[in-house]
Write a structure and sequence with these properties.
alpha+beta; Arc Repressor Mutant, subunit A; Beta-Lactamase; two-stranded antiparallel ribbon; 9 helices
Length: 255
């Protein structure tokens, strides 16, 4: 075995691969992997504690746990999200003649997972995989809209609120005010808060559980990004988000 592979982690992953095929008892796992009883017991207890496996107390059979299902679902949702969203993102970018981004929430930050650029200057601003703070970005604020206030405050407390521009809001109360306004208006703004002279407007994408799973934003070099020839671009943005949400199984309800 390569020195770069941690043996304990490798064995735990091997157990998960076995249980993905069929449920097994500890003894069966022990024989299959040719490990001693105590090693298998420790590995299973760790996986049980993290809910990666479950044990039927009546039969003693272990099987894949809900945590594995949850992680797999998140991954599949992101793949499905990008697949369903891309055509609509291109349509939106062409209609408003602005750059468009798709972002998700991950570990207290917003992460861009797709983009359609209208200006080469945005290449460095928005790269797929790039992380951006939630407190000073339109997508970040949008991704927090359906979370309880207490949860948002805790996330912000664990985040260093750094001023990127003179417009950056570094007080939790100010960020929360933007979130509250976003819930009422249905969209959030980044008024040159993360990059000077870069403005964004964002709206949420919902899945079949009516949960916000992503944010779509329109980005430009001035606050004209909010309007196109007098028509609010957010009308086109709202239509795009509704269509993507429908593709993810969201059923819009009257509020």
């Amino acid at each position: 075995m390569s020195e770069s592979i941690l043996q304990t982690a490798d064995r735990a992953l091997h157990i998960l691969e076995l249980l993905a095929e069929e449920g097994m008892t500890a003894t069966e796992i022990q024989k299959k992997l040719d490990l001693n009883k105590s090693t298998v017991h420790r590995l299973l207890m760790t996986l049980l504690n993290r809910e990666f496996v479950e044990r039927n107390e009546a039969t003693g059979i272990y099987q894949i746990g809900l945590k594995m299902v949850e992680i797999s679902s998140i991954r599949l949702n992101h793949v499905e999200l990008k697949t369903e969203a891309v055509p609509y993102l291109h349509q939106l970018a062409n209609k408003v003649n602005q750059s468009v981004q798709l972002a998700i929430f991950d570990e207290g930050e917003a992460v861009f997972i797709e983009k359609v650029e209208k200006y080469k200057s945005f290449h460095m601003y928005c790269q797929i995989g790039k992380r951006i703070p939630i407190y000073c970005s339109a997508v970040g604020k949008t991704l927090m809209l359906d979370r309880p206030d207490g949860e948002i405050v805790e996330i912000l407390k664990q985040t260093e609120l750094v001023p990127f521009t003179p417009n950056t809001k570094v007080a939790i109360e100010e960020v929360m005010a933007d979130v509250h306004r976003g819930r009422i208006e249905g969209y959030t703004r980044d008024e040159a808060e993360h990059e000077e002279n870069v403005y964004c407007v964002a709206m949420p994408v919902y899945d079949y559980r009516s949960k916000i799973v992503a944010a779509v934003s329109i980005t430009g070099f001035s606050d004209q990004v909010y309007e196109d020839e007098g028509k609010p671009v957010r009308e086109e943005l709202a239509l795009t988000c509704r269509e993507i949400s429908k593709r993810l199984g969201y059923v819009e309800r009257l509020r």
